[in-house]
Amino acid sequence: GQQVMQIPQYQHVQEGEDFTTYCNSSTTLSNIQWYKQRPGGHPVFLIQLVKSGEVKKQKRLTFQFGEAKKNSSLHITATQTTDVGTYFCAGYSGGSNYKLTFGKGTLLTVNP
Amino acid sequence: DGGITQSPKYLFRKEGQNVTLSCEQNLNHDAMYWYRQDPGQGLRLIYYSQIVNDFQKGDIAEGYSVSREKKESFPLTVTSAQKNPTAFYLCATRARGLSYEQYFGPGTRLTVT
Fold first, then answer.
1. How far is A27 from chain B (nearest CA, A)?
2. Given CA atoms B84, A8, A11, A54 in this order, what sign does their dihedral have?
3. CA distances from B102 to A14, A81, B34, B75 (A)
């Protein structure tokens, strides 16, 4: 079945440093979504990318979807303590827009 | 997220007992989901339902059962056949339209001893 791999599993940074997490799918995705889960909380939707090569920005966050629609990245510029949490990528594939497959996530911790 | 309630937040059970987790939504979303989350793991899909009276197995359905008799409700039963039931269980809904984003409830942390 479809697999979504995410690296790194953990990342610890000093406040102000940049952070990037990478996501790779074993199959071509129809779209990719990113979620953030704060410690003790539940996942919250951040963004969806649909087009090959698409780049979207949300303030200090930049999301990219690869040309082959099999990989994606999330880059945070100048991290803040409020960025702490686990970032998950997730994708739909195989013609189904109901079954979302999640990566294992990247846990980001920020030292103030 | 707003509009999805899961109760209780913490649940403790003895091994060998069935337990039902509640998920209610007032978002008028058709699709509902149950995920299981273990430490260091992503979200693994247990069951999902596209519409009332219909549901499909996800990737780890063994030892679980669901029902979808009402649009608003999608309860999950963790049966005694589930070998490792201790986990964080998340219910989600999916909006219509082009976004397909999922909205998550606050979760139920189940501990079985």
1. 17
2. negative
3. 31, 25, 11, 18
Q: What is the pLDDT of residue B1?
A: 47
Classify residue B61 as left (phi > 0), alpha (psi -120 to 50) or beta: alpha
- Closest CB to A42: pick one of B33, B42, B104: B104
Element (H, E) at A36: strand A29-37
Of B41, B48, B101, the CB nearest to A98: B48
pLDDT digits 0-9 by tens, A63-87: 999 999 999 999 999 999 999 999 9
Q: What is the mean pLDDT of residues B43-69?
A: 95
B-chain residues near A48 (CB < 8 A): 99-101
